[in-house]
């Protein structure tokens, strides 16, 4: 490079050009430091959303990352990375590769229990460190506006007599969230859930498109995912799975109101790889505890139809144990447990 | 007239100095990031999202949309110059763009790409404006059976992309489909072809294969030639003659429309659109044989289609609230957080936003054209870089692109692996394009087929009893049988003529008659 000449100067230029690309990348990684004792992250946090962009997990990851970055609750930026597919197993198998790495977090919900129970993941929830539960949201059972099913009982009756005639679209793999939320409700209504034709799509968006086109008869999706289509009258929500009516779909009855004794909450939370130190877990737990108190977060939760339901690391761990027992029961009953 | 009024109103929104600045910023960022191999619109948008969240929702979506179609616009540059696709949607552009560049016609290829992109984008916006509300019906009309049929039709292009050796093309396409199956199966969560590697659970990223098989393999080939036989750096005219403009007008027009409608279908998108358009034009063109060797029509077709598709994918997003591609999914997430709920009511409840975005796309496309055209001579000069410098640069770009995407060293090994595969394929006369096609369409084809069969309880007739699916499959059958029939007829004629000397008179007369009839028809 010391030899001057056309070639030499080009080489120098190229080196600078390449260098500035990596500088640009590195510059994005610099963030403001939030003071706090004990352990602190030393580089940007890779915050995994184990689903496609646009879905519930993704929105959770992006919103919480933004609120935390803006309120300076973590000393390094939270960078959301989407690892979609196979009901979440793809995302957390990635996190599992990074044991003891305190710069990896992932947003999670019932699939972290369900997918392993169905024998479809190398990891179980015990392979990760619970950090915090943040909120809950109901599942919604929806049909197209012109469907003959007016209530969930109508659907249940059909599923009892002629399950082969009804196809139900969901946004996650068999034995995963949408499927179990459906199976549990169907079973509670007295039909054979193992006979229901459940069609897995990649995410609620694709499932709803297939419903709108009349390719499937029913769709199961998160309450907030169906909100716009319910409001416009394109689809009808038969029921929501939460204990109380959801603020997102205030006119839709709960399953319990419809006479079906079943409650299924999509809880959402954050987990970290196995092997984090107590200090590291405490750091993130504290950050998320502060995060749910932010006005920006509350405002966003309202927009997205989430009910705050914070649990710290330890309580979240216990809650996971309880949920795991309950899901094991449902999956065994419907023959999905492997 | 109402729509026209609304559009004027939309221009009012888009032409505010603030929004103009954001359109400009968006397309500029997009076109630059699009040019860098490996970094696609999703990375570009993710990078801009923090900025967008501080803005008012309409400005934010105007800017983010600009990043998206800007990236598709710019992605062709590195496809043409370096054989390293900038974004997935521009892989097909390298088929003819790169050979053109090697012939010293890089400037011409870039001009064609810019013009076709501009037309594709603009046709897309017109479509979005005129028919968006009614198009949501088309969006949902495609269920699993229809997607399966569309993918089958797309895969028949293996025949046209195979070049001289159909068998090798089919092998290559099959390998592509197999690569698409790697990972956890979305229908049953079963592991396939993962060899116990966690890194493969997520499947193989499309761009890694494309960069390996095209860009890296090309580097290997050049290395083997020790720099001989490469482009000599001369750049002939940049301008297109009137005749050339006329030549590309057909492919560009058809590509734009085809691209737009493909983009409207969730799950298809810019990459599928560009391949469909490319293979369609190759079959249609009289000089189809020169496709793949540097035909400007082969640049115009995919470039107009991918830009049309980029705009088309806004239809499901804005009218149904359902993302039509990975990129619009990111946009949807951003919109929700900004407090905008896209869906059937958006047009009524927030007309400012809808029409503002539409108007901004007209402006954005013009900005892109103005931005890109004068830079073409500058870009084309990249090829004058001595090979000793250019080759390492290509490698660096590939590595940065792949690593910047996943931060995984395993992916870098994959990149090298596919580079070697691509090189061996080239050395043994296996075409790479069918592999890429199989990879893009294979996964979606398999998934759709299984979904369709689940819905129909295993009844295979579901594919032929649905009108759209049946039509697409019929087209697929036709496109496979037509060349076979042609070949059979040619063989018959040749046999007939060679049998002339030995065999009976009757047969000869029949053959000659057939031959004459054929010539007349031809």
From TrEMBL, chain B:
Taxonomic superkingdom: Bacteria
InterPro entries (alphabetical): DUF112_TM
A Pfam entry, by short name: TctA
Nucleotide-binding listed as a keyword: no
Domain DUF112: 20-437
Lineage: Bacteria, Bacillati, Actinomycetota, Actinomycetes, Kitasatosporales
Keyword Protein transport: no
Protein name, UniProt field: Tripartite tricarboxylate transporter permease
Native source species: Streptomyces durbertensis
Keywords: Membrane, Transmembrane, Transmembrane helix
Transmembrane spans: 20-39, 51-74, 110-132, 144-162, 206-224, 317-341, 353-376, 388-406, 412-442
Region named Disordered: 496-522
């Amino acid at each position: 490079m010391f030899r001057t000449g056309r070639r030499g100067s080009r080489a120098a230029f190229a080196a600078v050009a390449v260098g500035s690309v990596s500088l640009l990348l590195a510059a994005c990684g610099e963030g403001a430091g939030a003071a706090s004792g004990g352990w602190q992250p030393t580089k940007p946090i890779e915050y995994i959303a184990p689903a496609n962009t646009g879905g519930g997990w993704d929105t959770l990851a992006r919103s919480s990352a933004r609120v935390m970055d803006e309120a300076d609750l973590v000393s390094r930026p939270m960078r959301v990375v989407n690892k979609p597919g196979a009901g979440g197993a793809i995302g957390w198998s990635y996190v599992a590769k990074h044991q003891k790495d305190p710069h990896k977090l992932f947003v999670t919900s019932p699939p972290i229990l369900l997918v392993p129970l169905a024998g479809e993941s190398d990891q179980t929830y015990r392979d990760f460190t619970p950090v915090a539960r943040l909120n809950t949201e109901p599942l919604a059972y929806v049909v197209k506006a012109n469907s003959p099913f007016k209530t969930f009982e109508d659907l249940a009756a059909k599923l009892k007599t002629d399950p082969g005639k009804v196809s139900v679209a969901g946004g996650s793999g068999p034995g995963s969230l949408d499927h179990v939320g459906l199976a549990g409700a169907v079973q509670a209504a007295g039909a054979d859930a193992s006979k229901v034709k459940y069609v897995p799509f990649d995410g609620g968006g694709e499932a709803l498109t297939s419903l709108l086109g009349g390719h499937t008869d029913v769709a199961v999706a998160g309450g907030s995912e169906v909100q716009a289509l319910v409001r416009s009258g394109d689809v009808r929500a038969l029921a929501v799975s939460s204990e109380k009516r959801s603020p997102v779909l205030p006119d839709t009855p709960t399953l319990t109101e419809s006479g079906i004794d079943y409650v299924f909450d999509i809880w959402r939370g954050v987990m970290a790889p196995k092997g984090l130190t107590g200090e590291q877990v405490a750091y993130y737990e504290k950050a998320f505890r502060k995060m749910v108190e932010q006005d920006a977060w509350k405002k966003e939760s309202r927009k997205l139809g989430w009910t705050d339901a914070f649990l710290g690391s330890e309580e979240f761990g216990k809650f996971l144990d309880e949920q795991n027992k309950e899901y094991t029961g449902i999956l065994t009953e419907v023959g999905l447990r492997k | 007239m109402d729509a026209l009024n609304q559009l004027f109103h939309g221009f009012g929104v888009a032409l505010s100095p603030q929004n103009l600045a954001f359109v400009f910023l968006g397309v500029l960022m997009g076109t630059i990031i699009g040019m860098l191999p490996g970094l696609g619109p999703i990375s570009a948008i993710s990078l801009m999202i923090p900025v967008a969240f501080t803005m008012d929702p309409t400005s934010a979506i105007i800017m983010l949309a600009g990043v998206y179609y800007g990236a598709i616009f710019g992605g062709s540059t590195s496809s043409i110059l370096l054989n390293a696709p900038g974004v997935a949607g521009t892989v097909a552009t390298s088929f003819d763009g790169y050979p053109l560049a090697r012939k010293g016609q890089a400037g011409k290829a870039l001009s064609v790409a810019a013009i076709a992109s501009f037309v594709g984008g603009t046709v897309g916006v017109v479509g979005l404006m005129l028919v968006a509300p009614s198009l949501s019906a088309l969006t949902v009309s495609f269920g699993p059976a229809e997607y399966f049929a569309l993918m089958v039709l797309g895969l028949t292009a293996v025949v046209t992309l195979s070049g001289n050796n159909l068998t090798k093309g089919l092998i290559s396409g099959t390998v592509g489909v197999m690569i698409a199956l790697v990972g956890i199966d979305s229908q049953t969560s079963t592991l396939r072809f993962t060899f116990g590697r966690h890194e493969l659970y997520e499947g193989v990223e499309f761009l890694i294969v494309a960069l390996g098989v095209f860009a890296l393999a090309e580097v290997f080939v050049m290395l083997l030639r020790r720099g001989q036989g490469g482009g000599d750096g001369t750049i002939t005219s940049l301008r297109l003659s009137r005749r050339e403009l006329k030549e590309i007008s057909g492919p560009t027009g058809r590509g734009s429309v085809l691209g737009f409608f493909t983009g409207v279908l969730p799950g298809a998108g810019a990459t599928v659109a560009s391949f469909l358009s490319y293979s369609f034009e190759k079959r249609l063109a009289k000089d189809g044989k020169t496709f793949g060797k540097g035909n400007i029509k082969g640049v115009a077709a995919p470039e107009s289609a991918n830009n049309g598709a980029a705009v088309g994918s806004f239809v499901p997003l804005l009218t149904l609230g359902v993302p039509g591609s990975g990129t619009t999914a990111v946009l949807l997430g951003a919109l929700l957080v900004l407090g905008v709920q896209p869906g059937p009511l958006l047009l009524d409840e927030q007309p400012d936003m809808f029409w503002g975005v539409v108007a901004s796309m007209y402006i954005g496309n013009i900005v892109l054209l103005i931005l890109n055209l004068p830079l073409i001579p500058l870009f084309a000069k990249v090829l004058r870089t001595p090979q000793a410098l250019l080759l390492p640069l290509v490698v660096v770009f590939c590595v940065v692109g792949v690593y910047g995407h996943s931060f995984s060293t395993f992916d870098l090994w994959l990149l090298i692996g596919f580079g070697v595969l691509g090189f061996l394929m080239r050395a043994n006369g296996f075409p790479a394009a069918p592999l890429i096609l199989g990879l893009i369409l294979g996964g979606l084809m398999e998934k759709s087929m299984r979904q369709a069969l689940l819905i129909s309880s295993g009844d295979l007739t579901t594919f032929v009893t649905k009108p759209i699916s049946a039509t697409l499959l019929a087209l697929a059958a036709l496109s496979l049988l037509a060349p076979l029939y042609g070949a059979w007829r040619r063989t018959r004629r040749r046999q007939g003529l060679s049998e002339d000397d030995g065999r009976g008179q009757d047969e000869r007369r029949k053959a000659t008659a057939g031959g004459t009839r054929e010539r007349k028809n031809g």
